[in-house]
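Render this sequence as a predicted structure.
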Amino acid sequence: MENLTGKQFGSYQIVAPLGEGGMAAVYKAYQPAMERYVALKVLPRHFADAPQFVARFQREAKLLAQLQHPHILPVFDYGQTEGYAYIVMPLIQSGTLTDLLNGQPLPLLRIRQIIVQVGGALNYAHAHSLIHRDVKPSNVLIDESGNCLLTDFGLARMVEDSVNLTASGAIMGTPAYMSPEQGSGQKVDARSDIYSLGVILYEMATGRVPYKAETPIAVIFKHIQDPLPSARSINPELPEPVELVILKALSKSVEDRYQTAGDMVRAIQEAIPDSLTVSTEVVTHKATIAKAKILPPRRISAWVWRILVTAIVLAVGAISVNLWAQFPRAVPLTSTVAFPSAIPTKPKPTATPIPPTPTIVPPAVLTEYLENVRITSVDTFDTGDDWNLSAGRLTDGTLELIGKNWNSVTHKGTFTEGTGILVNFKYTQGADFELYFENGQWQTDSYKRFGVYLTLGYATSNRWNGKNLTGNYLRGNFYPAPDTLYSLLMVLGKNGDFFAIMWDPSNPKKIIYDRQKIETWKGLSWTFHMGADKGTILFDDFIRMEFDKLK
């Protein structure tokens, strides 16, 4: 392809080439309206000469632009000019997964992170009926925080279908990472992408791809017919559970592989446990208990208070020393912490739903998190007074959030610094949803949002700043599973300090969390939303709290 430096493609001024592959060339470009650099992926001119390509390109580009996942590189825009078709994406110059693979195995926790993130991206795309067809390390970008961004979704399909390669017997893809069915020209589905991800896992675990040969076609034949070389024979230090994941992902038969990318993600999480451990140290002093300021009596589940005592105290408090040693300690460990602790065995319609509150002994590290926690309201979803129900319904004290094109349920009222929410919910099969604080108008430069995105086998924190989305890997040792009860605590700290932690109440050691400090967001008022794209989420309780400090 000719060098397009200096050309004007729509509103984008091409600045410099960044690289060129078999299907497209990538350029750095400047977008004056947004005052930012972007990446332009430009397809060869002869593709645009094929009438069937133009229609497919427009259709696929629109579909790709609708993908919203923290580990899929988003599509900003697309267009055609001077006979070229191009796609506009964020500019990521920190490298690709290829740069990390230097012939040596990667650390196990790094392998785990990459498979979880890329597998989560594939699981999301497959749920939206999109197959990648060319999953390989060079299509996994690594941002400055070390997180993965899968790119080139749909590009192989655009090219393949547009020039009718399949009918001519030619194959589009990368032989070293190609599934047996793709290499033999058969119809592919999501399990072909899972095989390619298995090849990446094999390479990260051993330092080499499973099959090498003198010609690309010879590599394809090896994928189709040769036995898989043992990963542990190459890397004897590789744990056996990891090799078992590799063997299943790289099965020749699609029926013997993981049937979804979410299944593979959960398998690698079990094979490589997270290193996060939970402290059980306690202090010798007792915390005083403050009565909660609460709305008029409502039905309150007994386990709500159990969660507040055991989960907030054990789950949130116990990890704080490890999480935020870098944050200043404003209060010594001998500080008094106030929070509710009683666990009624049966709700009683008294003037206050909280019975007498005995003293308890919290973990020492609790004072490193929140000081003087006070519950200000408990919503058990008996009425819709506190919510604008545009995408859900109330049934027997349960809020049923129903996914459809990112409709949301909005909490009436605003949240300011020093407040937080705790929600208890059950994740259902195949659901995609997000819980978030929002300020400003969507799709404007001043828009701000912090939230947690959840889907099958995957969770991340999302942050919108203007029209730009960034996602952080939620650290911890579990990911959402269907029909399981979870608790999520989201906090607005002082001076733009945001915190989110989610855990399994039946096992407080299973925790994921994130904390971000965005000082330019301090002093804002926030609205709380619960939005769903697909599936149904069941919410049992919503608890609002105030606190003095997030340390």
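Summary. The domain at 97-271 is CATH 1.10.510.10 (Transferase(Phosphotransferase); domain 1). The chain has three domains: 8-90, 97-271, 302-550.
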